[in-house]
């Protein structure tokens, strides 16, 4: 039977790491090593829940509450100490994870729990991407926030899990919302917000082709967010989405134009600041490429101590 061991902590010295490997049966064992990436949400430094009143959001520093908070993480790779990228192999397909026959790997991270201001969501949650890699010394991680193109365009009603969720379906040629983060006026109908909800919906735009008839869908802006943490220890750190960072460049109480908030529109004024935060090329005249500026350009996700 193949043994599964915990990931060696990257910060260990070479001697300590060697001792750890020896204790587990020796450095020559290339059996799988279990990895668990934990995700969460913060507003600045404050952990976020659906029942919490958040403060100091947007350019007008208003209070808000989370209404929805979900995103797809795909094709995670651990970064080895020699710089090599090693695919994190997921376990069996289930409600949250899917490995396609072409090798694409996908996990839905769902941080809303259908309580409080998230009442329209789902009670089930998932804060982890779990998998395994061959034994080795790993120092970092990289992945995409998004659904690979080959998996993106399908009817949610007949799709495999976790692509079968209506709330994450989008009208762009049967595509998906790669990320769905929504914050709302904490005082509801009596509150001061002109636009009651600020939406961040990330997804591919400018898509053509009908998947229902077998056509290959192409999109002018893929809008998949590249994330890389060259120094990361899953034993002591988790990856969090910062709502303050997401809203920092907009007055979230007023919709300037286009869809409320930023729904990845190529000319939507709220998307200028949002796309800078997520590190994807965007231009006010609609000519943005939709490609990552770089793997380290985004500031929406960050590392915090567990």
From TrEMBL:
Residues 34-264 form the Copper-binding protein MbnP-like domain. It comes from the Bacteria. Residues 1-22 form the signal peptide. Coiled coil: none annotated. Keywords: Signal. This is Metallo-mystery pair system four-Cys motif protein. It comes from Rubrivivax albus.
